[in-house]
Amino acid sequence: MQDRIPDGPMRELLATVLVALDIPAPATAGGTEAHGRVLNDRAMHARIALRDALDGPPLGVEWTTRYLRERLAESPPTGYVTNAQAHTALAAGKTWSEAVALPGGEPR
Description:
The protein is mostly helical. Helix content is 58%, strand content 0%. The chain is built from five helices and no strands. Helix 1 packs parallel to helix 3 (61-73). The model has no long low-confidence stretch (mean pLDDT 91).
């Protein structure tokens, strides 16, 4: 018995849905609003793609996956500082306030 989803169009779609939903967490509470907006937008597109795949998309799963990737490219996880970005800045010698500031100086 194989538990792994076999390579193919459906696996590609599911992997793309994971990319949509698995965005980095914000480093501070100030970034949660931007994180939530991005995640909500990406989750909406992922839900639409999954619904299309389950209903039998008229243009095929491959097309649905490409379309989802295009929508995700329009909604990158930006507008907040991630934990990884903050830790990288700290390792480079920045203060916490500097590490969690967006370009332009506003902490997020």
